[in-house]
Specification:
alpha/beta; single chain; binds calcium ion; 15-stranded parallel sheet; 24-stranded mixed sheet
Length: 678
């Protein structure tokens, strides 16, 4: 029994604890917050002479300015009605929570946002027949026999008596599922006349010039990602079930068999520390030892269309070069040499699944990897331990025509990368980084400048931590391509996020980036186009649900800022927060954009300068933008807040509308709204 006196401090503690507990249940957090935020947005617009129908981009005018094809399903939805974003993202966040332990549902979640999702589990489990086959005694010999009869397996009959029964069943399940899935993959690529050549071209790098891009896009049109996504669902389901079966295997059980197939090598091993050198692997199951994998789990060719790696024990290393065992990526001289080559956990015209069950693991890749997909689907899932993830580019939840997922279930983890990492989606791609537990650190390199930005040559373009990136070609060849969807979702713990330019919920050129932090006291550091910011017909949002947080954006256009027909959102639901904001921030519209900032609860401190705290820039006279809405909206809903003394309209308890240009109606004007509701 707690005998402490109930002093006012105790009461405050108990009340805030009660609120926290209520909010920790994600559904109630969303319900309370969404209703309140939605009402506040509605009222703020009304008080300024706007409403959710009029406060939109004019589709006709935008159509004259916006160029780009292959927009995602999510982009079309949010572009149609910006004000639905908080409701839609709160429903999406629940799906991420619900997908725990079912990574194939995370895959379907991402794929649906882009437009090629399936719901293959709606009626039942599509892998149930394969599970039935695998569960029978002697199933692996039986499956291998059938594959041998079809000339898919070349190794003659092999002794399996040393291989533990769960390992045989798990291997049988993966191979049986692969065999049942290959027709979907064949159909997906049936439009390609020379798939081996396409593999080399599509994987050879991002096309820069139009003469490279045109054939690339033609090949892209010949790959049906819906079919490949359906196949990936079944593979990811089977890998999840196989991992469950393997958890029971004694880590000291010793066995080692190698079987060759035309889809790649199958190796089953346990009880020792093993180094897997680079070669085309179809399947690796390793149940014991501290192992090293050099580019062992990836698509190596058109025929090596599937690669599954399940490691259930030990502290393992997943490396793209043996040199990286002791060298960090940022210190590695060859770090920039192979940014689009597949490394561990990278898909290319195929499917890749990497599951690590236990141990403190090191994932270090200068190649594209750790949940990275081009024309395919990749999943990396780490179940336990304090892990270190390092990459250079196009990694750690990255998708370009396809989807890449990095899911970490537990432990305090460290993520480091340079560019297009930690939840990044390019054209027709999604990249998801989901970290479910622990205090984590996410860094997109800021001091070694390998990716100097057009905004500031001394700062990297990060395009990281929830970033959707498109190809802007209005000033070059005209072949603009819409960006994809990048999401970083961190569900627990006190976390730290650092990046340069473009990051932490950012979008560029019809791309969408979300950073969702569900819990904990967090620190956000970035430079420009960060923390809920977007440029050129794009959408960026940072939403932080619980905890007292510390936000810093140093250079410009951040923390709820939309530039050029973009939406930038920053919503913080709880806690006493501190915002250090640059020019164009905290609910700012720039060049016909919409920027929205909402802080729901707590006593907050705003340190800001310039066009900030509910402000919109004036559009040039006699241009298409003159009578376009440009809107900056700032709302603080509660608490004793501190505002900078030199921002004239930002006073506690006040509602202010500031017109930069007043058109015939508010919807044809450029205006800022500041509302501190108390
Ligand atoms: Ca291991
Ligand atoms: Ca681990
Ligand atoms: Ca965390
Ligand atoms: Ca707050």
């Amino acid at each position: 029994m707690n005998t402490a006196k109930l002093t006012p401090q105790n009461w405050t503690f108990f009340i805030s604890l009660a609120i926290s507990l209520a909010l920790v249940s994600f559904s109630s957090a969303q319900e309370i917050g969404r209703m309140t935020v939605d009402q506040a947005l509605t009222e703020a617009l009304q008080k300024a002479g706007l409403n959710k129908q009029s406060a939109r981009f004019n589709a006709g005018i935008m159509g004259l300015l916006r160029q780009g094809e292959r927009s995602t399903a999510l982009y079309d939805t949010l572009d149609f009605d910006p004000w639905r974003l908080p409701g839609i993202t709160s429903a999406l966040r629940r799906e991420v929570v619900a997908a725990e332990g079912r990574s194939h549902e995370l895959h379907n979640f991402g794929a649906r946002l882009v437009g090629f999702g399936t719901r293959r589990t709606l009626i039942g489990s599509p892998i149930e027949p394969a599970i039935e086959v695998a569960r029978k005694p002697g199933s692996l010999q039986e499956v291998l026999g059938r594959l041998r009869a079809e000339r898919l397996v070349s190794t003659p009959s092999i002794e399996l008596s040393q291989v533990p029964e769960p390992v045989q069943q798990a291997a049988a399940l993966i191979l049986e599922t692969a065999h049942r899935t290959i027709p979907l993959r064949r159909a997906a690529l049936s439009g390609l006349s020379d798939p081996e050549r396409s593999f080399r071209v599509l994987g050879g790098g991002f096309p820069e010039e139009a003469d490279q891009l045109v054939p690339y896009l033609q090949m892209a049109d010949q790959v049906d990602l819906r079919l490949l996504s359906a196949a990936a669902n079944d593979i990811f389901m089977a890998a999840g079930v196989a991992e469950e079966w393997l958890l029971a295997v004694d880590p000291s059980a010793r066995y080692d068999v190698t079987i060759e197939s035309s889809w790649g090598t199958i190796r089953l091993s346990g009880g020792s520390d093993t180094t897997y050198q680079e070669r085309p692997y179809l399947l690796i199951i390793d149940t014991g030892g501290d192992d090293t994998y050099i580019n062992a789990c990836k698509n190596s060719s058109h025929t090596n269309w599937l690669s599954v790696l399940i490691d259930t024990n030990g502290n393992d290393q997943y490396l793209s070069s043996p040199a990286l065992e002791r060298t960090r990526i940022r210190d590695f001289p060859g770090r920039a040499s192979e940014p689009t080559q597949p490394g561990n956990g990278a898909a290319l015209l195929g499917i890749v699944a990497l599951h690590d069950s236990r141990g403190d693991d090191l994932y270090r890749t200068h190649r594209r990897g750790t949940g990275s997909a081009m024309f395919g689907f990749a999943l990396v899932r780490d179940r336990a331990g304090n892990d270190e993830y390092e990459a250079y580019r196009n990694s750690q939840g990255f998708g370009f025509f396809g989807g890449g997922i990095l899911e970490d279930m537990e432990g305090n983890d460290r993520y480091h990368g340079f560019n297009q990492v930690q939840g990044c989606g390019l054209t027709q791609g999604f990249g998801l980084l989901v970290d479910r537990k622990g205090n984590d650190v996410y860094i997109a390199e800021t001091s070694i400048i390998d990716f100097p930005s057009a905004q500031n040559r001394e700062t990297n373009v990060s395009m990281a931590q929830g970033a959707g990136n498109g190809r802007r070609a209005d000033f070059t060849d005209g072949l603009s391509q819409a960006g994809g969807v990048g999401i970083l979702a961190d569900l627990d713990g006190n976390d730290r996020y650092e990046c340069g330019i473009f990051g932490q919920g950012t979008g560029y050129w019809m791309g969408i980036g979300f950073l969702w932090d569900y819990s904990g006291n967090d620190v956000y550091r970035g430079e420009w186009y960060v923390q809920g910011a977007a440029a050129h017909f794009a959408i960026g949002a940072l939403e932080d649900l619980l905890g007292s947080d510390d936000y810093t954006a140093n250079q410009s256009t951040s923390q709820g800022c939309g530039h050029d027909f973009s939406q930038g959102w920053l919503i913080d639901w709880h806690g006493n927060d501190r915002y250090r904001a640059p020019n164009l921030s905290l609910g700012a519209g720039s060049a016909g954009g919409i920027g929205i900032f909402v802080d729901v609860l707590g006593d907050d401190i705003y340190l800001a300068r310039g066009n900030t705290l509910g402000f919109a820039t004036e559009s040039p006279e006699a241009t298409l933008r003159t009578r376009e809405l440009c809107l900056g909206l700032f709302i603080d809903m509660q608490g004793n807040d501190t505002f900078p003394p030199d921002v004239a309209w930002a006073k506690p308890g006040s509602f202010e509308v500031t017109f930069s240009r007043r058109g015939p109606s508010p919807a044809e004007s450029q205006l800022g709204i500041f509302w501190d509701m108390r």
